[in-house]
Amino acid sequence: EVQLVESGGGLVQPGGSLRLSCAASGFTLSSYWMSWVRQAPGKGLEWVANINQDVSRSHYVGSVTGRFTISRDNAKNSVYLQMNSLRAEDTAIYFCGRITCAYAQCFYDYWGQGTLVTVSS
Amino acid sequence: DIQMTQSPSSLSASVGDSVTITCRASQGISIHLAWFQQKPGKAPKSLIYAASSLHSGVPSKFSGSGSGTDFILTITSLQPEDFATYYCQQYTAYPYTFGQGTKLEIK
């Protein structure tokens, strides 16, 4: 059974840092792109970042570029999101998502339950 | 960035009804379109990819159609567990973008 379990969320002051983790099980992590998507309280879904299988490619939404870094350790079956210079508008539930590539397309199939990040003084 | 616009933003329906939700992209995205269901306090659930292909385990009461800029999600024979918020998402270009969501409520 595919499972994605996020951790590392919490309360942090503006300007602070936080590192989120996503523990993957039930599949071979090294075969998949992985992603982070967030959802501010009462709002819709917002894509944050993607990383490819061998860490040679990563992509970010403009609002986090230069502040957030997505990474992975396939040997530890984990994906990470390092978040620096946090702002109030980064407050959200952060979901880890698996991306399957098939039929010349890459799309989400599995999601974690999310971890809440609150940026406030 | 490609903007995704869903309509309606909210929808009331009764158990047993069928509903359609539309999603329009600000530019052509071929069939690189996914649909998700999300219930309060829960993670998104992947329903459809490639505009019309159902993920494994998703019941056939869900169907998707469209290509280019206009897409439709249809849900037939609504059951209580289907009342949720639905999102479309394009994955043809970065940044990936989602529609604002359609909240499906029980009438």
List the helices and strands and how they pair.
The complex is a heterodimer of chains A (121) and B (107).
Chain A: E1 3-7, E2 10-12, E3 18-25, E4 33-39, E5 45-51, E6 58-60, E7 68-73, E8 78-83, E9 92-102, E10 105-111, E11 115-119
Parallel strand pairs in A: 2-11
Antiparallel strand pairs in A: 1-3, 3-8, 4-5, 4-9, 5-6, 7-8, 9-10, 9-11
Chain B: E1 4-7, E2 10-13, E3 19-25, E4 33-38, E5 45-49, E6 53-54, E7 62-67, E8 70-75, E9 85-90, E10 97-98, E11 102-106
Parallel strand pairs in B: 2-11
Antiparallel strand pairs in B: 1-3, 3-8, 4-5, 4-9, 5-6, 7-8, 9-10, 9-11
Question: What's the gist of this structure?
Answer:
The complex is a heterodimer of chains A (121) and B (107). Chain A is mainly beta and 121 residues long.
Structure description:
The complex is a heterodimer of chains A (121) and B (107). Helix content of chain A is 0%, strand content 56%. Chain A has no helices and eleven strands. Chain A has strands at residues 3-7, 10-12, 18-25, 33-39, 45-51, 58-60, 68-73, 78-83, 92-102, 105-111, 115-119. In chain A, the strands form two sheets. In chain A, strands 2, 4, 5, 6, 9, 10 and 11 form a seven-stranded mixed beta sheet that branches. A four-stranded antiparallel beta sheet of chain A has the order 1-3-8-7, with no helix packed on it. In chain A, β7 (68-73) and β8 (78-83) form a beta hairpin. The model of chain A has no long low-confidence stretch (mean pLDDT 97). By secondary structure, chain B is mainly β. In chain B, strands 2, 4, 5, 6, 9, 10 and 11 form a seven-stranded mixed beta sheet that branches. The interface between A and B is medium-sized, with 23 and 24 residues.
Terminal CA distance of chain B reads: 36 Å
The H/E string of chain B reads EEEEEEEEEEE
Mean pLDDT of chain A: 97
Using a beta-carbon cutoff below 8 angstroms, give the protein chain pair with the largest interface and the number of residues from each chain.
Answer: A-B, 23 and 24 residues
Determine Rg of chain A (CA atoms, Å): 14 Å
Main pleated-sheet profile of chain A? 7 strands, mixed
The total of helices of chain A stands at 0
The amount of beta strand of chain B, in percent, is: over 45%
Structural class of chain B: mainly beta
Report the helical percentage of chain B. Answer: under 10%
> Looking at the chains present, what oligomeric state does this protein adopt?
heterodimer
What low-confidence regions of chain A span 5 or more consecutive residues with pLDDT below 50? none
User: What structural category arises from helix and sheet content of chain A?
Assistant: mainly beta
The number of E-state strands of chain B comes to: 11
Total count of helical runs of at least 4 residues of chain B: 0
Strand content of chain A: over 45%
